[in-house]
Amino acid sequence: MKSQTLNIYERASGSLFFLSFDGLSLAAGNKTIFKDVSCRFMYDGIVLIKGPVGSGKSTVLKMLGGLIEPCGGSFTHCGGGLPVSGVYIHSQPEFNFITGYVRDELTFAGIPHDAFPELLGRSVYDMSGGELKKLSIMMALAGNPDAALLVDEPLDMLDDMEAASLAETIISESRRRPFIIATHDVHFDEAADVIITIGAQDQRPLLRRTLP
């Protein structure tokens, strides 16, 4: 079984948020994503997790959101000296909704209806992929004011116009809230403070850090 390499590229930032891996090991089933990795970095708004399909990007997001446990070691995610929780947003947007109707979704999430007045009568089944992904993110922002948004492939399967619009929304919101994004897309590369690339390698995990 090949081990994994984490390559981390970190730009200088104002350091609003702190994320560290301490002897961290993570697996999905019988596949080792990485083993005994230790690294620390600061960021302001956006961390990207990149890598080929099946490399474990989604699993890392789920771990940061507390949905799965690492195999060993630990991680710390803080902002202003306080722990930061994470809200996982699925790559298939329909999985982010339960009732099928925007009004009911807002009620279930405890979000005031006046936050999305133009969508109250809509069914999620009648909305485009871009609309659903944007709504998932905006509801997570409204319903979890202190959490980081852990967004899995937000631009996947969107047309060029939808992808550009949603990328602009995420970049704008990241000035106020932290985002950790699993993606193979390049829309966020210039806006990201940190880019973590997961890749296969036949040797012990490495960490390479470059400050542009």
Give structural notes:
The two termini are 33 Å apart. The chain has one domain: P-loop containing nucleotide triphosphate hydrolases (Rossmann fold, 3-Layer(aba) Sandwich), CATH 3.40.50. 35% of the residues are buried. A seven-stranded mixed beta sheet has the order 7-8-9-4-10-1-11, with helices on both faces. The protein has four helices and eleven strands. The chain is α/β, with parallel strands linked by helices. β8, α4 and β9 form a beta-alpha-beta unit.
The succession of helices and strands, N to C, reads EEEEHEEEHHEHEEE
Number of strands: 11
Strand order, sheet with most strands: 7-8-9-4-10-1-11
Shape: globular
Q: What kind of sheet is the major sheet? A: 7 strands, mixed
Which range best describes the helical content: under 10%, 10-25%, 25-40%, 40-55%, 55-70% or over 70%? Answer: 10-25%
